[in-house]
Amino acid sequence: MISVEEHLENILRQVEPVATETLPVPRAHGLVTVSDVRSRADLPRFDNSSMDGYAVRREDLQGASPESPVLLPVVGDVAAGDQLPREHVPGKAWRIMTGAPLPVGADAVVRVEDTDGHVREAQFRVHPEEGANIRRAGEDVREGEVVLPAGTRISAPQLAALVSAGVEEVEVVGPVRVVVLSTGDELVPFGEHVGPGQIVDSNGPMLEALVREAGCFPVHVGHLPDDEATTRKEIRHHLDHADAIITTGGVSKGAYDIVKAVLTGEGSTEFVEVAMQPGKPQGFGVLGRRKVPVFMLPGNPVSALVSFEVFVRPALEKRAGRHVSDVTTTGLAAAGWPSAADRRTYTRVRVTRDSTGEYAVEPVGGHGSHMVAGLALADALAVSPAEATEVGVGSQVELVLLRPRREIDGRLAGDQP
Ligand SMILES: Nc1nc2c(c(=O)[nH]1)N[C@H]1C(S)=C(S)[C@@H](COP(=O)(O)OP(=O)(O)OC[C@H]3O[C@@H](n4cnc5c(N)ncnc54)[C@H](O)[C@@H]3O)O[C@H]1N2
Ligand code: MOO
After folding, report:
1. 49 ligand 2 Cβ < 6 A
2. What is the distance between the alpha carbons of residues 352 and 374, in angstroms, rounded to a whole number?
3. Which of 280, 339, 371 most suits a substitution to test ligand 2, by most atoms within 8 Å of the C-beta?
């Protein structure tokens, strides 16, 4: 048996980011920039008002105060989006809206609250500071400056920055297109009749969801028959277009373990036993001229999920050009449980809070790797080291969260009286 670290290192050493692509900005959501992206415009694009009020010259409001307001005639209105060039008229004010271009020559904006708000002639109760309530062209970013450095993942704020900066296309590490293939003649796809001895393929939909949640793109979710020739043909076909392939089942010692039979000797494929529970039988290889990583995960649903979290997720992140590190969450064992000897053990747990406000965890949903209904009850996997044979009450355990932390915390907040 090899350790979890050894197997993960072996995978990550062989996985490279996918090719770069130049995409229209809205389609680059979730992807990582390859080079510095420079702004095509000053932001703001022009001097404009940050408040609804009046554009003035300060010198026209010398001594203005609530006790002795100064009266100025109003030239007219400047609305946001106004395209007419406006100029300050000495001794007068323009009524101006938030985001509207500042009339040339005006040097301050007085908020409407500091005036009587009149349209033709307004009383001003303050003497504004130089540049008050003015947003200057280029104060956010200047044309030609870097608006997004290389290696940035494009999320919502970055999309806003790029489109504002007039950037239309961006070079990114391409989307990672993933093929998910279940194996086993006992499986029927969702929605079809389940006969005697048959079960519904749950790994397919589960992995499709995990791939999507990991920011990658499931492009085909299907099934391989327990037949070598067809399986070989199908995998060859997917090696031509996929950026990663995940299979489940057929990696153990069964007489019909077709994946193992077909992929042994292909590319860098290796089948190993990893010192973990569940998830002991694992296969991995980089195959074909496009060097596609192929993950051959065990078929038991819990084993497949744990294998995804431990091996596939980090590899997909590397393939997508993301640099991530696991932020470890910990919890205190509210009950004790056994831990498999000589194997790192991932125990399904439900999270609550102990009296000090820390996460408290307890096994939930049963022990077997086949218990897919019980799996749905788990918030996290509690990790106990290979050396441990049990987890003692009150001991601290590392947690791999299966739901976003915000969701767990939200539920716990709701549980409280
Ligand atoms: N003699 C031995 N038998 C087994 C060993 C062993 O060391 N010696 N290891 C066990 C462990 S641990 C695991 S994990 C499984 C892995 O088996 P395979 O990867 O070969 O998977 P299958 O035999 O095809 O299936 C196992 C189990 O999972 C169910 N399954 C498979 N695919 C799906 C799916 N897409 N959706 C839902 N359920 C699925 C399948 O029906 C089996 O019940 O091997 C042990 N055996
Ligand atoms: O290692 Mo298997 O994955 O225990 O069920």
Report:
1. no
2. 17
3. 280
